[in-house]
Amino acid sequence: QVHLVESGGGVVQPGGSLRLSCVASGFNFAQYGFHWVRQAPGKGLESVTFIFADRNEQKYVDSVRGRFTISRDNSKNTVYLQMNSLRPEDTAVYYCAQDYDYTTESWGQGTLLTVSS
Amino acid sequence: DVVMTQSPLSLPVTLGQPASISCRSSESLVHRGGNTHLTWFQQRPGQSPRRLIYKVSNRDSGVPDRFSGSGSGTDFTLKISRVEAEDVGVYYCMQGTHWPWTFGQGTKVE
Q: Distance from first CA to last CA of chain B, Å, rounded?
């Protein structure tokens, strides 16, 4: 059974940095790509970045490119999201999502990032 | 990016009655591999999303059979045959065919 646990959220001032982690279990971690999807308070869902399973390649949406970096450590079954130059509009619950056949089967509980002075 | 447009955004329902949500994409969701990667999620208040339907019409294990998905190309529908109290929440369609994944605005069923 797919199990994802996000952590690392908190309150950060504008311009600050934070690293989120997502620990996965219940499947062969190295075989899957992962997305980070965020949800601003009271708003909808937005996928912001993706990392491939089998090659060192990542994708980013324009709003986070150059500020966010997704990475993975297959030995720890963990996906990371390094977030720099944070803005108030980055405030959201951040979920990691396993990419299984162009969809995701399970969601973690998410971790809340608040960017505020 | 592919734009996903849901309607209605708010859906008052009557218990025991049917309900239907429409989702339209700005581009075809047919993947080069032949599948159409359209997913429906349910998000109950205070909870993470839960997948209901994948590849247009495939119901996830444990999802009641009153939920069904249909459609093709750019037009898709989620139907609830008889709404129950536990179905209250926000429903999102999502396309996974094109990067980035994009979601509809959400339909609040209340």
A: 30
- Per the CB < 8 A criterion, the answer to whether B40 and B91 are in contact is yes
pLDDT in tens, A13-66: 999 999 999 999 999 999 999 999 999 999 999 999 999 998 789 999 999 999
Phi-psi region of B26 (alpha: psi -120 to 50; beta: other; left: phi over 0): alpha
Which residue of A lies nearest to B36 if distances are taken between CA atoms? A102
| Backbone angles phi and psi of B19, in degrees to 5 | -145, 150
Question: C-alpha distances in angstroms, A35 versus A82, B77, B108?
Answer: 13, 25, 25
**Residue found under tokens 């309150």:** A11
Contact list in B for residue A48 (CB cut-off 8 A) is 100
What SS3 state is found at A89?
Answer: helix
Query: With contact defined as beta carbons under 8 Å apart, do A110 and A95 qualify?
Result: yes
Instruction: Tell me the per-residue pLDDT of B25-56, one tens digit each, with 9 for 90 and over.
Output: 999 999 998 999 999 999 999 999 999 999 99
B89 and A CB contact within 8 Å: no
Among the partner residues A48, A102, A110, nearest to B31 by beta-carbon distance: A102
